[in-house]
Design a protein that fits this description.
By secondary structure, this protein is α/β, with parallel strands linked by helices. It folds into three domains: about 5-85, Winged helix-like DNA-binding domain superfamily/Winged helix DNA-binding domain (Arc Repressor Mutant, subunit A), CATH 1.10.10; about 90-160 and about 265-290, 3-Layer(aba) Sandwich (D-Maltodextrin-Binding Protein, domain 2), CATH 3.40.190.10; about 165-260, D-Maltodextrin-Binding Protein, domain 2 (3-Layer(aba) Sandwich). The chain is built from nine helices and 14 strands. Strands 4-3-5-14-6 form a five-stranded mixed beta sheet, covered by helices on one side. Strands 11-8-12-7-13 form a five-stranded mixed beta sheet. The chain has a two-stranded antiparallel sheet with strand order 1-2. The longest helix is centred in the first third of the chain and has 24 residues, at about 60-85. It is elongated and about 75 Å long. This is LysR family transcriptional regulator. InterPro entries: LysR-type_TF_proteobact-type, LysR_HTH_N, LysR_subst-bd, WH-like_DNA-bd_sf, WH_DNA-bd_sf.
Length: about 300
């Protein structure tokens, strides 16, 4: 009854993408082909699996049960195929990757280019966003995340620890002076992003000072606050990974160098599997090596 892997893959893609049209686009198939294959699968199992409407397709109870099992089946098939393909000597196929925007542009974007140049049968779909989304919901193979991990069902490979530090431009420091202690920040222009309303800094004796922060400039993007700091508009608390290059070339100055945030792990998250696909294994090793060797 469930003897057509192609139909199962199409069904799983519809479930992940949320609509037949989105799945058809993702698979590179005509919409009528996707619709016919779904109808054929429903005919074989004897139940409706997906309720269609003009904008979104929803799984029925039976559809959700099948989807849960199909994911495991397809994962096993993919693992088996990867074990034998080319004697596991060359990664191939599509790898879907997500990463935070600034971090991804600096480290993951160039790395993806290098990998596809080296491995001609490897394809990578890179999605850069600061919004945290589920791997299954977004049809992802691996996601790079900074901070604590909420989903304990995923495998988390720690790549390194990241710390946020206070930085400002030389122009701002020349105009406003440099704070000597965290309490001095209240007299400076601070640049905020996201949901930040408090900063917490750890000192040289591991003492922690937490204090409320306000700003005349607030953005929903860490990139924007970073650029404001480069423009000399204030002090920003930003990941040392994001500002390393600007610190090295003198565009930014490390303010309060003995103080920093608590450690936030940078991790690669992926679904558990008995055998990693070669493309995922190659990617993970390359990311780890790149981050460990960064300046």
């Amino acid at each position: 009854m469930l003897d057509n892997l192609a139909d199962l893959r199409i069904f799983a893609r519809i479930a992940r993408c949320g609509s037949l049209s989105a799945a058809a686009k993702d698979l590179g198939l005509a919409l009528n082909v996707v619709s016919k294959r779904l109808a054929a699968l429903e005919h074989r199992v004897g139940v409706v699996l997906i309720v269609r409407n003009t904008r979104k397709s929803n799984l029925t109870i039976e559809g959700q049960l099948l989807f849960d099992r199909v994911q495991k089946i397809l994962a096993e098939v993919e693992e088996t195929e990867s074990l034998f393909a080319e004697g596991r000597s060359e990664p191939r196929g599509l790898l879907r990757v997500s990463a935070p925007a600034a971090f991804g542009r600096k480290y993951i974007r160039p790395l993806c280019g290098e990998l596809v140049r080296r491995w001609p049968h490897l394809s990578i779909d890179l999605r850069l966003t600061d919004q945290v989304s589920g791997l299954i919901d977004e049809s992802l193979d691996v996601a790079i995340r900074i901070g604590s991990i909420a989903d304990t069902s995923l495998v988390a490979r720690k790549l390194l620890d990241s710390y946020r530090i206070t930085v400002a431009s030389p122009d701002y420091i020349a105009r406003r002076g440099i704070p000597a202690k965290p309490g001095d920040l209240s007299r400076h222009d601070l640049l905020l992003y996201g949901q930040a309303t408090r900063w917490a800094l750890t000192g040289p004796s591991r003492e922690i000072i937490e204090f409320p922060v306000t700003s005349r400039l607030h953005a929903d993007s860490g990139d924007v606050s970073h650029e404001w700091a480069l423009d000399g508009l204030g002090i920003v608390l930003k990941s040392e990974i994001d500002v390393a290059e600007d610190l090295a070339n003198g565009r930014l100055v490390h303010v309060l160098p003995e103080w920093r945030s608590a450690a936030a792990p940078v991790s690669a998250l992926y679904p558990p599997a008995r055998h990693l696909s070669l493309r995922l294994s190659v990617f993970l090793d390359a990311v780890a090596e790149r981050l460990q060797s960064r300046p």
